[in-house]
Amino acid sequence: MEIVKIRVKNYRALKDFSMDWQKPLSLIIGKNNCGKTSLISIMQTFFSEGKGPGIRYDDFNLEFKLRLTDCIACKKSEWDNTDIQGIELFLYIEYNESDNIANISPLLMDLDPDNHMVVLNIEYVLNDINQLKMDYDKYFEKLSSGKKNARNKQQLFERFMRDKSKNYFKTVYKAIKYDYTIHECNPDIFTILDKNILHLSRIVSIKSIGAKRETDNKENDTSLSSLSNQYYERVKGEAGDPVLEEFEAQLLKTDHELTGLYSKVFEEIVGKVKRFGGTKENETIIQINSTLGRQELIKDNTVMTYKSGDQELPESYNGLGYLNLISIIIQIETIMAEFRCDSDKEKMPADINILFIEEPEAHTHPQLQYIFIKNIKELLREGKKCKDGSDIVVQTLITTHSSHIVAECDFDDIKYFCRVSPYAVISKNLCSLEAEYKDETDPNNKRYKFLKQYLTLNYAEVFFADKVILYEGDTERILLPAMMRKIDQEEEASGMPLLSQNISIIAAGANSQLFSPLLAFLDIKTLIITDIDAVKKKEIKGKGTYYVACEVEKGEKTSNHALNYYFKEALENWGRNDLTNDLTFFKKQNAKQKVLSYIQKNWQQNEDGKLMIAYQTKEENGKEYYSRSFEDAFFCCNRQFIIDNISNFHCLKNKKYFDEKDESGIYQYSPYELAEKCVKSKPAFPMEVLLNSESDGKCDYSNWKIPSYIKEGLLWLKQD
Length: 720
Fold this sequence. Notes:
The protein is an alpha/beta fold. Strands 2-1-4-5-6-7 form a six-stranded antiparallel β-sheet. A six-stranded mixed β-sheet has the order 8-11-12-3-13-14, sandwiched between helices. It is globular, with a radius of gyration of 35 Å.
């Protein structure tokens, strides 16, 4: 028996949220404030052992609150009974023929042997909308003081609901009809359940290890020792356990010895008590006895230490990373013992046990993070084993911001949470990318295998980014941070600084099209920096006709596969109306036309899209000039910078070409020719650009310009 799907409506950012859950362990990833903690919170809230869910008014989805305010406070609309009336949680529970279904029997809506799914629906919904209206009207008249503007109405209503919302909502438990033929539930067919008959705790038990753990390395900290005590409480064995019997025998012996010592230690105080008539001879005799109990002894008299050489050091002397890791392991072991009901043999384990672990990477270096995620599955597998050999059902959710943990985890285990609006979050299965990469040209799905390997080895942090840059070569990689800083310093008033934004930078080479399904999956603002790569036909004697690199003005087409891929639809439309070559198309595109959206599995031009392709555009340097590559573009707009520092550019050859002019004063060599004939070492070139950079007090790189196409792209990316 296991939960295979969770659906949440109207709780915080989980407006209409669903998540598949087919794995014993799932990793939830995503940037901050994308709903990871909210999912844990609503589960804990609805399955708490208290009197009812601890729902606050601020837990409702913002859109729901605005709708309620509009209806009750502003009286602009009537409450529509078809709308969601509050917060809802759906658990899709799948069972098989070998499972004991006694606890979930109230959820069974039919006896069809082919239907192995039940759906539990817990609602926290409005009980009486009319009563709410009347009570709020009285409250408003009392406190508004004649200030009946819209803002005052909204503020007062929020204040009222924060104090009184619990009076107008009730918790309802339902069994929902599930149609296995269409793999959907029918919310119109349900049975209302009595919570006392349902016995939620027998169906689902939830435990969590929060991100804010008790460990620190202050001198007086003994949190690990405390956790070891908790562990003992949960795992202490039954009568007959030889280890515990030996423990008890040793305690009896110690009790006897301590009692003899206590009589001497307390002899004086007992004598003073006798002096005041507190005791009578042969009637009331005071004696101090030792009564060590194993529980109390473990609780109050054990301290965890660690060894360094021959020295025993207190736990606080350990690093925070190790303290955190040890803490998680002890807590997992303790919780697994609770799930197994080791300390209460009269109690049966729940049908489904859920363990949440938040951000296990806290304070740990990458290697420890790798070790944790490598071993966690085995630790959980061992913890599921009961003494009778049976297994309990444990489903584990781990939330993380660690790219190292993601890199070591199977794609099939990963759930990607992302915001699709200020009010809503969705969950995506990372494994669904595999289907997006499949096509007839790649039957073995080598592209997907490459992506998995490439991301996990190098760029798993992309899953936590707000924005992405894909670059082509080493030159761009080295200079990008400097160019971003230069943009920030020169365009101070224009949006949040690039270097203050959460941007992941990925090497894509000339094959950024391989990342297309990933970019569509992530659905975040992305800039691809690439080259226009102009080529023309050339007849090579004895070998035939080939396309060779050339200046853009002499080019016939682009050899850049990424450009042809992303602009495929636009090029097709262009070809219907214009018989000129595709290079003409790319030269004519303005900044807005380089922005694309992924629509119906195709990239289409859309100025409001989330993907921009930045390639060389015209550079103004005395005359209009189209560059072919980064070096070409850089030399075009920074020729004087190179000339002024030519002796310091050891990566260049044929240095005289930069300053050679004809009789009319025109440079003899074009920027394209300089890029082709003068660059001796491409990796060294950007480093020497940085070495020769100067600051004017405002900008750290004031003596050179960013090529216009990169500046165009970075300015676009900078904006929200």
